[in-house]
Design brief:
The chain is an all-beta fold and about 140 residues long. It is built from no helices and seven strands. The protein has a domain of about 80 residues: Immunoglobulin-like (Sandwich), CATH 2.60.40. Strand 6 and strand 7 form a beta hairpin. The radius of gyration is 24 Å and the shape is elongated. About 5% of the residues have low confidence.
């Protein structure tokens, strides 16, 4: 069976310099385009660790609704252009990323805390106290 391949005129002359230049840009440094989350449970609360590198603290929003947690951020990646430089390829992007998930228990929004440091968002989400069972007397 014959195999088809795309002819790249620069592949033989400049094998590394132009590799992938004419192909659509993938999310090269774009691992940041998705929010990766670790969730741990201990002693009546959840700890959520979310990796959101390259985002400013003011561009992150966290919303809690019952047992649902939503994290969203506006991503702005820019490259600097210096005097006397010639740009051959520039990859930057703007956009929004979001992640939502549900936890097993309802959360106490008033006691929740968030901290963002070195591209890592840490949420401490206490569980709501379960209502205690009450025995009714029958009259």
């Amino acid at each position: 069976m014959t195999r088809l391949s795309v002819y790249d005129p620069f592949a033989e002359v400049f094998p590394e310099l132009f590799r992938g230049f004419f192909q659509p840009a993938r999310q090269a440094a774009g691992e940041a385009l998705e929010i990766r989350v670790d969730v741990k449970e201990s002693n009546g609360d959840y700890t959520v660790v979310a990796e959101i590198p390259g985002v400013k603290k003011d561009d992150i929003q966290v919303q809690i609704d019952g047992n649902r947690v939503s994290i969203s951020a506006e991503v702005k990646r820019e490259s600097e252009k210096k005097e006397g430089e010639r740009v051959l390829r520039s990859e930057r992007y703007y956009g929004a990323v979001a992640r939502s998930f549900s936890l097993a228990s309802d959360l106490d929004e008033s006691k929740a805390a968030a901290k963002y440091e070195n591209g890592v968002l840490t949420l401490t989400l206490p569980k709501k106290a379960a209502p205690s069972a009450r025995r009714l007397t029958i009259s």
